[in-house]
Amino acid sequence: MLTGKQLILATKPYAQEQRSKSWYVLFSTLFFLLAAAAGTIWGHYIVVRLASSVLMSLLMMRMFIIYHDFEHHAILQKSLFAKIIMSAYGLYMLTPASIWKRSHDYHHKNNSKLFSASIGSYPIATKKKFASMTKGERRAYLANRHPLVILFGYFTIFIFGMCIASFASTPKKHWDSLIALILHVALAASVFFIFDAQTLLFTIIVPFTITCAIGSYLFYAQHNFPGVLFNSNEDWTYERAALESSSYMRTNKVMAWFSGNIGYHHIHHLNARIPFYRLPEAYHAIKELQAAKQTSLKISDMVKCFRLKIWDPEVQRMISLKEYKMSLT
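Above: the chain's sequence. Below: its structure in token form.
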């Protein structure tokens, strides 16, 4: 059985990109994304425009994973052309490089630590911490994990969290957050005035709402699922956090393609330098990676994930709000 550093080293051969494939996935995804965007604008029938809008949202998600891998230095490094494309896409997706990379790198280095700041992740409170909160603090904590906040992640997480809040907190460091917000408003206004409100709906509002909702939920469920473990900073290890606190999300082949294999999240956390298109290869080659805790996009699994609210160190699991209240009686 491979454990610890041995397991991390076993993934190293898969952290080698296939340069031609990286360029292919980038350009093919951009081509299909632009074609879908054209369909939202010039489709002759409303059903065609709606279908193009949904397709556009899924392709935006795939392109985001490519951007995400670039920021992890997994693909297309030392290419100025790739950097220009990725920087532009980060602004387009309301995830400019400064805030996205800072928060996401922090998340990888501190995944599942109980008492670290909730940077780049959904907050986790222990029973003791939750009991000590004021009513306002409890409402804010539960609101951050509420399904509606995740469903409307376009506004709550991307526009407000990634852009407005980051710029308001440190304007000099996150000036690109303001640029992303300005460009987004300018793009939406241009679509509205050049075309019409219906085109704005299909080209901007629907794709961003769907993409951001799926992305927000994926990020939530990958670290908030039945069986997830959290640790104090003293007991934390990188490989345990990857395997015990990051899920393997089962998806069909179509969703795996659109989501850039992000379901293999435990492997990604074990070695973020593995390109997304090589994650299945690593999964099938290393048997220790096949024992990960699983979830899926089934409604029943989503409900189970959303019920989890508070970490109970006594039973070593996340519990629901109802279970918390029962434990007090």
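Residues 18 and 75 are 8 Å apart (CA to CA).
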